[in-house]
Design goal:
The complex is a heterodimer of chains A (448) and B (479).
Chain A lengths: L1 E11 L3 E11 L9 E11 L11 E15 L11 E6 L2 E5 L3 E2 L7 E14 L4 E20 L8 E24 L3 E18 L5 E7 L3 E6 L4 E6 L26 E5 L4 E11 L2 E11 L2 E4 H9 L60 E3 L2 E12 L2 H4 L7 E16 L18 E2 L8 E9 L1
Parallel strand pairs in A: 7-10, 18-22
Antiparallel strand pairs in A: 1-2, 2-3, 3-4, 4-8, 5-6, 8-9, 9-10, 10-11, 11-16, 12-13, 13-14, 14-15, 16-17, 17-20, 18-19, 20-21, 21-23
Chain B lengths: L3 E10 L22 H17 L8 H4 L3 E3 L15 H23 L9 H26 L2 E2 L13 E2 L1 H18 L18 H18 L5 H14 L9 E3 L10 H8 L5 E3 L1 H9 L5 H4 L36 E4 L1 H13 L8 H15 L4 H9 L12 H12 L4 H11 L25 H6 L1 H10 L15
Antiparallel strand pairs in B: 2-6, 3-4, 5-7
Classes of the chains: A mainly beta (448), B mainly alpha (479).
Chain lengths: 448, 479
């Protein structure tokens, strides 16, 4: 890749700042005819508090707006087709067609974002906020889209249309107490993002990932980026889950039912910092509201009897795992075809009754929201009287901290809803979940 | 006082000269051209692997035909296809790994130019076509309607599903064309031909045997066409001895071993034991193949686990050590199967020569001898009233179905397919699972990927075949 970059900036009388950039890249990983692309950005900031003069109420005010495009190239070796070579079979050499089809017609991808914000502080910076509205469109995203295997491929490289993200981010701070010996500062962050798939460059569903049990994470046209599809219960019009004549749940005909959305309604956090003389205590509470996750662990573990729900006494007061003849078994919560309550007792002698195979995958999709005590810090600044005439250090502080201290509330049993396979696009799916690492530490800060 | 600050910055960087620029994006480790034989060999190996495997994620046909059953985890024995995405895995392995590579090989054959003479190129195309027919036939017999006319085209990511009977007709046409184009005086793929080593006479016999089988599959739905195909195939020359079996010779060293060895021995797992369904039948008939099919249990007897539920691995007979050897050969078609088809043809008044009893005896004798039994074993077995064609129980269909099911032991897909066609022998119903006899699969459900990635065509196909359900019968499965 080679590139040329130009930047221009103006500052006008301390209250207006205008920046502009333009960049041209040429990337060898794109087809020769399409390998050069330009992308500009511009931003404007107006510190309007500069010209409203001295004002005891508004201490700072700034409006900002910016537009930016970012161009991006294709992953290496996604343009020309080649063959895979295998281990020879005796005298026969072995080659095969790769499972991803490359694309000689790829175009550069592009992200366009438009953002506007207002930052204000009041009452000598005792209260303030910063609000940002944004809209970002990712166009022609280059990715290997999973396609029907009847094409002979797992996936093919495409330029995938247009995915839109828009949302609002709010930061708010208050200093209710601000005296010489005691300070209290509260900071609040809140963000809400909504995304939608507007165009997929000729396909109607981009499958982000899939797992056992026929569960998939999808970005389909007109839907949010990250819907969970799976099979589901079949519901009677009275709302009950329909149970077959054999006492087991009926499943939907396909695993193409939309049974979840991985995107949260909003996320937020509150930091409280309290300082008394030389002692500072602060803690952060993180909140994620909504967003779904499929738990492969519960899908399997509830079947194989790992969890306490799968043992114990049934409605008759007998061991649920005992044979039906000994009063064991269970009546699953549901209705018969005619809507009357299910009364068919089924055996739980063998594995299965509470987990996969006997329950649709949708039964293991949970709300992934949480409230967490993310972090707490306690810091002691050595008073200057102790430092005395020491000329080496300007300040010394001692602190202890902890991270991931307490999950105050969650709806996913037995694991941390934040755990996932990774930080990439494939979210909303959990298997082999580990607990989040809790960290404790102490620190010593020396200022010279 | 107003102050204007102005900044301008231009940075440029370049790292290459343009002559080699595009070259940077060409793969240095993988070739952009290969001979068609390398793709053909890969496709052949993968096809045989798919048919032979006992991997619980891919090939569970030994369970569906109740030759084997499972020990600790018995979901598949209870017909849970969904949890492990088994239909999708088989679908993918056929379209992507077999058919795509056959298709690519076929397009590369003419590109070899005059270095490979025309007759050899035609023979190579015929080999590709015969395996194409075998593979599509397997998919049709597994799913019903499938993508066919629009399959294998990456530009069309929404291939429609074609009618199964229509595909059958086209496959017969293609098979006939392949047979007609074979020149047995010339070679084919040579050492890249892992089935015949380039012997085109062998391919011709294979193709005619496949045609015989395809014709018979239609017997219940189109007796006229079945008769035409079967008689033509039999007259042209089908497999006439075990020496003409369609054999794939696995190697002793990974990765080219028999997949059964991978699944049962190399993995160290203890997932399968013999099913009581077949062991009980074979014990009842004093079948000489039982020590060749299975190991003895702890008491020196042959004893199968209860089909479709939990079984203790140590208690029961397992697949015989010969079968789990890394270089145990695999079969795509064999003499016994062909003789059973001929016996059936005689019973259906098709003109293939011989008597039903004669072909039936040839089939059983061929199977016993293939597995390592002696001719005396076969004589003794056939002499029993319970085995002899004249006296065995049931009508002709049941007699043939029963013995054919035993003979197809290591070919689970065909064992299950013949059970679907004959509705015999009577299989067991997994206990304590809320299942009935009617729940035994008659087909696979479609790949779940098709629901999310080819939705409209999937929905049309599901309704066209009468529901994407394991209970939906395929077009040739009249009874």
């Amino acid at each position: 890749m080679d590139g040329i970059f130009a930047k221009v900036g103006f500052v006008y009388n301390k209250w207006a700042i205008l920046d502009g950039t333009i960049r041209r890249d040429r990337a060898s990983s794109l087809p020769e005819d399409n390998n050069t692309y330009y992308y500009p950005s511009a931003s404007l900031g107006i510190v309007f508090s500069e010209f409203i003069g001295d004002n005891s109420f508004i201490s700072f005010g700034k409006l900002r707006a910016n537009y930016a495009e970012v161009g991006n190239t294709a992953p290496p070796l996604s343009v020309f087709d080649v063959y895979n070579l295998g281990t020879a079979f005796g005298d026969a050499s072995i080659a095969s067609v790769p499972t991803t089809k490359n694309n000689p017609d790829l175009k550069p991808e592009r992200t366009r974002s438009l953002e506007a914000g207002l930052e204000m502080r009041f009452l000598k910076d005792r209260v303030g906020f910063d609000v940002t509205l944004y809209k970002q469109n990712t166009k022609d995203q280059i990715l290997p889209a999973t396609i029907s295997r009847a094409t002979g491929y797992n996936s093919k490289f495409i330029n995938a249309g247009d995915v839109e993200n828009k949302g609002v981010e709010v930061q708010l701070f208050v200093r209710p107490v601000n005296s010489r010996n005691f300070n209290w500062r509260v900071e609040l962050n809140w963000a809400r993002n909504r995304n939608k798939v507007l165009d997929l460059g000729g396909i109607d569903n981009l499958r982000i990932g899939n797992s056992q049990g026929g569960v998939s994470i999808n970005a389909a046209l007109g839907e949010p980026y990250g819907t969970i599809r799976s099979n589901n219960f079949v519901f009677h019009q009275n709302g009950g889950r329909i149970v077959n004549a054999n006492g087991r749940y009926r499943f939907s005909a396909t695993s193409n039912e939309i049974t979840g959305n991985i995107n949260p309604d909003w996320i937020g956090g509150i930091t409280n910092s309290l300082r008394y003389k030389n002692l500072t205590f602060s803690f952060l509470i993180d909140v994620k509201k909504g967003g779904d996750v499929f738990s492969l662990d519960l899908y399997y573990g509830m079947a194989t009897g790992m969890y306490p729900e799968t043992a114990g006494l049934n409605d008759l007061g007998n061991e649920v795992r005992a044979p039906l003849g000994d009063g064991g078994g269970l009546i699953v919560d549901g209705v018969k075809e005619d809507g009357s309550p299910n009364d068919v007792r089924v055996s739980a002698v063998n594995y299965g009754s509470f987990g996969y195979a006997r329950n649709p995958a949708a039964a293991f999709i949970y709300d992934a929201g949480y409230v967490k005590l993310r972090e707490a810090n306690l810091t002691w600044d050595l008073p200057s009287t102790i430092l005395g005439g020491n000329r080496i250090f300007k300040g010394v502080s001692l602190g202890v901290y902890g991270r991931n201290l307490w999950i105050i509330h969650k709806n996913l049993p037995y694991s941390d809803p934040e755990d996932g396979y990774g930080s990439g696009n494939y979210q909303g799916h959990q298997g082999g979940a580990y607990p989040t690492v809790r960290t404790f530490g102490a620190n010593l800060n020396l200022k010279f | 006082m107003k102050k204007i600050l102005f900044l301008l910055l231009i940075v440029g960087f370049a790292v290459s000269c343009s002559k080699d620029f595009v070259d940077l994006n060409t793969d240095k480790k993988r070739p952009s051209a290969v001979p068609p034989g390398a793709l053909f060999a890969y496709a052949t190996n993968t096809l045989v692997d798919n048919m032979t495997s006992s991997n619980v994620n891919l090939n569970i046909f030994r369970l569906l035909s109740q030759y084997w059953t499972e020990t600790t985890y018995f979901d598949e024995s209870q017909y849970d296809l969904a949890t492990r995405n088994i239909p999708a895995n088989f679908w993918n392995a056929m379209y992507r790994d077999v058919l795509k590579n056959l298709d690519e090989a076929k397009t590369l054959i003419p590109a070899q130019g005059p270095a490979v003479v025309d007759a050899v190129q035609k023979n190579q195309t015929a080999c590709v076509e015969i395996l194409n027919v075998y593979s599509y036939l397997t998919l049709v017999n597994l799913f019903g309607n499938i993508p066919y006319s629009e399959a294998l085209d990456y530009r069309n990511v929404y291939p429609k599903y074609d009618d199964a009977a229509g595909i059958y007709n086209d496959l017969v046409t293609r098979l006939d064309a392949a047979i007609a184009s074979i020149n047995t005086a010339e070679g084919g793929f040579g050492s890249s031909d892992l089935l015949y080593g380039g012997d085109m006479a062998g391919w011709k016999t294979f193709a005619n045997s496949l045609k015989l089988k395809m014709g018979m599959m239609l017997a219940d739905v189109d007796a006229g066409k079945a008769k035409t195909l079967v008689e033509a195939a039999a007259a042209a020359g089908v497999i006439a001895s075990n020496d003409e079996n369609v054999v794939f010779h696995y190697l002793a060293a990974p990765p080219n071993t028999n997949p059964i060895w991978v699944d049962l021995v190399q993995s160290g797992r203890k997932d399968f034991v013999a099913a009581n369904t077949i062991v009980d039948v074979m014990n009842g008939l004093n079948d000489p193949r039982i020590p060749l099919y299975f190991t003895e249990d702890a008491n020196g007897a042959y004893n199968g686990g209860i089909y479709g539920t939990s079984n203790n691995y140590a208690t029961y007979s397992k697949p015989d050590e010969a079968i789990t050897a890394p270089d145990f050969e695999a079969l795509l078609m064999d003499y016994a199967e062909v003789e059973f088809l001929l016996a059936e043809a005689v019973e259906r008044n098709m003109n293939v020569g011989g008597t039903a009893a004669g072909h039936y005896e040839n089939a059983i004798r061929g199977s016993i001898e293939y597995w390592g039994g002696s001719s005396a074993d076969a004589d003794a077995y056939l002499a029993q009233a319970s085995v002899a064609y004249a006296t065995a129980t049931g009508d002709w269909k049941q007699k043939i179905a029963h013995q054919k099911w035993i003979a197809l032991y290591n070919r689970g897909f065909d064992g299950w397919t013949e059970w679907r066609r004959f509705d015999y022998p009577i299989l067991n119903v997994p206990p304590d699972a809320g299942l009935t006899y009617d729940d035994i699969p008659k087909r696979f459900t479609y790949s779940v990927d098709e629901q999310t990635l080819n939705t409209d065509n999937y929905n049309s196909a599901a309704s066209a075949i009468g529901g994407d359900n394991v209970k939906t019968k395929l077009f040739w499965d009249k009874f």
